[in-house]
Amino acid sequence: MRSRDLRPAVSSDISLVLTKVELVSIICDKCSFSQQESVQIVDQVFQIFKEPLERGEKVIISGFGNFLTREKRPRRGRNHQTGEQVIISGGRVLIFKPRVMLRRVVNGENRNP
User: Fold this and answer.
1) 56-113: what fold?
2) How far apart are alpha carbons 29 and 22 in whole angstroms?
């Protein structure tokens, strides 16, 4: 499988959507790892992120951002088809907060003030 061009799209309507298989393929192409090594790398990185998040801990990637979970409490909502009020169950949600450096890159700002 050939990797896609990862340059930013001209239109903001187009997003980069990757499957795990495509991510493995990109790692193979860019880092010269075998397919099997690339699968192991992707699996390990995902596992490294998943374990602390499952425990409710924060994952911090320097210069990139923080992944964390937050508890959401149950709340009232409305069934749009019937108009009936319903209770939306609470639970844990995953949140990503970009670091300043990533925000500057995304906004096209200079990295040095």
Assistant:
1) HU Protein; Chain A (4.10.520)
2) 11
Residue type, 16: L
Residue keyed to tokens 């096209």:
108
- Under the banding of pLDDT at 50, 70 and 90, the label for residue 9 is very low
Least confident segment among 63-77, 80-94, 99-113:
99-113
The tokens 């990109």 sit on which residue? 26
Residue with more model confidence, 28 or 13 = 28
User: Where along the chain do the CATH 4.10.520.10 domains lie?
Assistant: 56-113
The span from the CA of 22 to the CA of 82, in Å, is 42
| End-to-end CA gap in the chain | 41
Closest CA to 49 of 41, 58, 37: 58
